[in-house]
Amino acid sequence: MAKIAVGLVGVTGYTGMELARLLVGHQGFELVRATSRADAGKKLGDIYPFLRHYPLAALEITPPDPDDLARACSLVFLAVPHGAAMDLAGPLREKGLKVVDLSADFRLRDGAIYQQWYGLEHRQPAVLSEAVYGLPELYREQIVRAQLVANPGCYPTSAILGLYPALKHKLVDTNGIVIDAKSGASGAGRKATVGTLFCEVQDSFRAYNLGKHRHTPEIEQELSVLAGADLHVSFNTHLLPINRGILSTIYCTLPRPLELAEVEAAYREVYKDEFWVRVLPAGQLPEVRHVRGAMFCDIGLVVDPRTQRLIVVAAIDNLCRGASGQALANANLMSGLPFCMGLDSPPLMP
């Protein structure tokens, strides 16, 4: 089978690096363009020594050029910051390419909300309306037909998957949901900042952006669709002293007394055909090390009868399930390839 030629714009960030790793052995895609303005002219193997002895190491990094990408590729991954992606997605779509955008530029359906939270006017409103939100468990059929997929954020992936069955089966009150989320330092990106230096993160644990994290409207948008009504959450983020992984502990109020077995049955019914979501047995809770480098979302459930609360714990790898792996799964679906192609390796255990 001839491989589909793909491009990767923004290869030098953490999500670009993870995509390069995943594409090395992909049976259906061939990475033929990897772009970066700062590192143009270098070979991929020069910046990523883990690629040595693989053919991909010889690929020369080029500046991002929509015309060149259109000549060489059928599908392009955009692993660039918000604001930059919207200006690339439009021209690429006009040239007939399929696009998976890993930034936030096409996740929010309302341009005014995007401007409110990201401080930028959306410059591609026509393309914005075309984008499909790339969470396969919710939008698989639309992704298959899509030309532009907005890859979900890492925190929203864990929160939405954690709450989907509870909202679908109306197990919880839609008011007062608290999402207490923690991420490894790679979630902040590869750009050097004081707050993510080793000496600032190691042996510490801190909250940040309380009440104002930019993933809030994305989470509320998708949860409101599931709930069938406008829904607001208390979304609180923390930085873990680890490289990768997200653990979200979600607190919900039960409108009626429920046994754990009933809740667990609802979750298993929703995810019975979803290979990448693992509902853990009663008494077990997720750990980020068990999903490291993999597409799994592990979910643990606790019912606290004293407080009438359902506590949902969801663990994902922020770089794989929360970014690059999910982007690859979306590209598989868009290209008519098996959903799991290139993603079926077990977690990377330390």
Describe, in plain words, how this protein is organized in 3D.
It is a single chain. A 7-stranded parallel β-sheet has the order 3-2-1-4-5-7-6, with helices on both faces. The longest helix is centred in the middle third of the chain and has 15 residues, at 154-168. α1 (14-23) crosses α12 (320-334), α7 runs parallel beside α12 (320-334) and α8 (154-168) packs parallel to α10 (216-227). With 350 residues, it is of the alpha/beta class. It has 2 domains: 4-130, 3-Layer(aba) Sandwich (Rossmann fold); 155-317, Dihydrodipicolinate Reductase, domain 2 (2-Layer Sandwich). It has 12 helices and 14 strands. Helices cover 32% and strands 21% of the residues.
First-last Cα distance: 35 Å
Percent of residues in helices: 25-40%
Order of strands across the biggest sheet? Answer: 3-2-1-4-5-7-6
- The tally of structural domains comes to 2
Q: What is the assigned CATH homologous superfamily of the largest domain? A: Dihydrodipicolinate Reductase, domain 2
Order of helices and strands: EHEHEHEHEHHEHEHEHEHEEHEEEH
Helix- and strand-based class? alpha/beta
Give the low-pLDDT segments: none
CATH architecture annotation name of the largest domain:
2-Layer Sandwich
Tell me, what is the CATH class of the largest domain? Answer: Alpha Beta
Proportion of strand residues: 15-25%
In CATH, the topology of the largest domain is named Dihydrodipicolinate Reductase, domain 2
User: What gross morphology would you assign?
Assistant: globular
- The total count of helices amounts to 12
Question: Largest sheet, described in full?
Answer: 7 strands, parallel
Tell me the total number of β-strands.
14
Arithmetic mean of pLDDT: 95
